[in-house]
C-alpha cells in the first residue's frame, strides 16, 4: 500500500506574517532609492554651481587681462617670439641648403674652365656644328624668342686675396674695398694699415691705389701709432699759429708779367687725397686735401709776381705766378715758400710746401686761376 505525503497549506497567520515582511522590504527599498535620488540631485546642483563658478572666474580673468596695462608688452613679446622662431626656421633651412651645395675653389674652377676651353676651337672649326647652330638661331621652333647662342667663355670671377701669412705684401685696391674690411680679411688692425700707408682719412682710398699690407698678425704697437699722432698734432698746432697773428702780413710783389707761351694748359699742382671743395658760390678756387709738407708744383711755366706770408687776408702763406696773357695762378695756405718775386718757374717745379696757414680748417692747398686779376670758374683734377 502506497503512502502519499502532502504539504499542509499555510495557515492564515503565516500568510499575514509573510505579507508584513514583504511590505516592510519594499518600504525600506523605496526610502533607500529616495535618499539616493536626493543625493544625486544634490551632487548635480553642486557640480552645476562649481562649473558656474569656474566659468565666472575664467570670464573675470579674461576681463582683467584685457584691461591690464601690460597687454601691449605681452603682445610684443609674443610677436618677437614668432619672429625669432621664423628666423631660426629660415636659418635651419639655409644651413640645410648650404650643406647640399658643392664648394669649388678658384684653382678647380680655373682647371675646369681650361678643360672646357680645349673644346672651343673644335666647336668653332666644326662646320656641321656651326650650321646646326645657325639653323637653331634662325628658327624659333615653337619658342617665343630665338635660342641664345652657346658661349663657352668663362665669366669674370673674383681673384683670391694675396697671402700675407708669411711676408708683407702689396695689394691693389679693388672696387668696393674699404680699410675696415681689408683689415678684417688680412687679420690686421685698421690702425696698422693706416699707419704703414700714412693714411689720415679712411675714405680716401680708391680703386687702383697700392697699399702695403704687413704680415698677418704683425700689428704696429699702439704706442708707436700714438707717438706719430702726437707729433702730427704738434705740427698742426705750429701751422695753426699763423691764424692768431692776422695783422702780421708781409707781401712782396714783382711788377712784370710772364712773356713766354705757357700754352694755357694747367696741371694739377700737387699729389692730393681728395677735393673737399671746388669753385662755386662763395669759394674762388679748388681745395686739394693733403698732408702738411706735400710738395706744391707750378701748374705751368711762368714767373713769380707775388709772395705773401702771415694772414694775407685769410690766404696765409701764398704764391701768385703769372703765366702770360693775363693768366695767373694762386697757391694758398702754404707751410713753406721756396721762391721769390721775379723768379722764373717751369711747369712741375716745386715752389713750396702745403700747409694750414691763414683761414684754414685743415691741411690743404687752395688753388685759384685768375684772368686779368679776376677769379674764373674751372675744374682741375
Please characterize this protein's 3D structure:
With 381 residues, the protein is an alpha+beta fold. Among the domains are: 50 residues, no CATH class; 52 residues, LysM domain (Membrane-bound Lytic Murein Transglycosylase D, Chain A, Roll); 131 residues, Distorted Sandwich (Glucose Permease (Domain IIA)). The chain is built from seven helices and 13 strands. The strands form two sheets. Strands 3, 4, 5, 6, 7, 8, 9, 10, 11, 12 and 13 form an eleven-stranded antiparallel β-sheet that branches. A two-stranded antiparallel ribbon has the order 1-2. The chain is elongated, with a radius of gyration of 50 Å. The protein starts with 11 loop residues before the first helix and ends in a 6-residue tail after the last strand. The N terminus is likely disordered.
Helix-strand blueprint:
Layout: H1 12-66, H2 71-100, H3 106-125, H4 127-138, E1 169-172, H5 179-185, H6 190-196, E2 210-213, H7 222-240, E3 249-253, E4 274-277, E5 286-289, E6 295-297, E7 302-310, E8 317-324, E9 327-337, E10 344-345, E11 350-354, E12 364-371, E13 374-375
Antiparallel strand pairs: 1-2, 3-7, 4-5, 5-12, 6-11, 7-8, 7-10, 8-9, 9-11, 9-12, 12-13
Helix pairs in contact: 5-6
Amino acid at each position: 500500500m502506497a503512502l502519499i505525503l502532502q504539504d499542509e497549506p499555510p495557515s492564515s497567520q503565516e500568510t499575514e506574517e509573510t505579507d508584513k515582511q514583504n511590505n516592510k522590504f519594499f518600504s525600506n527599498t523605496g526610502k533607500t532609492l529616495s535618499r539616493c535620488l536626493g543625493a544625486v540631485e544634490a551632487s548635480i546642483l553642486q557640480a552645476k554651481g562649481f562649473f558656474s563658478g569656474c566659468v565666472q572666474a575664467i570670464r573675470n580673468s579674461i576681463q582683467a587681462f584685457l584691461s591690464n596695462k601690460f597687454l601691449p608688452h605681452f603682445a610684443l613679446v609674443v610677436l618677437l617670439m614668432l619672429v625669432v622662431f621664423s628666423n631660426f626656421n629660415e636659418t635651419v633651412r639655409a644651413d640645410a641648403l648650404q650643406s647640399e651645395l658643392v664648394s669649388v675653389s678658384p684653382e678647380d674652377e680655373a682647371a675646369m674652365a681650361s678643360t672646357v676651353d680645349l673644346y672651343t676651337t673644335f666647336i668653332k672649326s666644326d662646320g656641321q656644328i656651326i650650321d646646326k647652330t645657325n639653323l637653331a638661331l634662325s628658327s624659333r621652333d615653337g619658342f617665343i624668342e630665338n635660342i641664345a647662342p652657346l658661349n663657352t667663355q668663362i665669366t669674370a670671377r673674383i681673384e683670391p686675396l694675396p697671402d700675407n701669412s708669411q711676408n708683407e705684401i702689396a695689394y691693389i685696391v679693388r672696387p668696393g674695398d674699404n680699410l675696415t674690411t681689408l683689415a678684417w680679411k688680412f687679420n690686421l688692425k685698421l690702425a696698422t694699415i693706416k699707419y704703414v700707408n700714412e693714411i689720415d682719412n679712411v675714405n680716401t682710398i680708391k680703386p687702383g691705389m697700392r697699399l702695403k699690407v704687413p704680415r698677418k698678425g704683425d700689428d704696429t704697437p699702439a704706442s708707436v701709432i700714438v707717438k706719430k699722432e702726437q707729433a702730427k698734432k704738434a705740427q698742426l698746432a705750429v701751422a695753426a699759429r699763423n691764424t692768431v697773428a692776422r695783422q702780421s702780413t708781409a707781401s712782396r710783389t714783382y711788377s712784370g708779367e710772364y712773356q713766354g707761351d705757357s700754352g694755357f694748359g694747367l696741371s694739377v699742382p700737387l699729389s692730393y687725397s681728395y677735393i673737399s671743395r671746388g669753385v662755386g658760390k662763395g669759394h674762388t678756387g679748388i681745395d686739394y686735401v693733403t698732408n702738411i709738407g706735400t710738395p706744391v708744383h707750378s701748374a705751368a711755366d711762368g714767373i713769380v709776381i707775388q709772395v705773401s706770408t702771415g694772414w694775407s687776408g685769410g690766404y696765409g702763406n701764398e704764391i701768385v705766378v703769372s703765366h702770360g696773357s693775363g693768366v695767373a695762378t694762386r697757391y694758398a695756405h702754404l707751410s713753406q715758400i721756396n721762391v721769390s718775386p721775379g723768379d722764373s718757374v717751369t711747369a712741375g717745379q716745386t715752389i713750396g710746401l702745403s700747409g694750414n696757414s691763414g683761414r684754414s680748417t685743415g691741411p690743404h692747398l687752395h688753388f685759384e686761376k685768375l684772368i686779368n686779376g679776376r677769379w674764373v670758374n674751372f675744374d682741375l683734377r
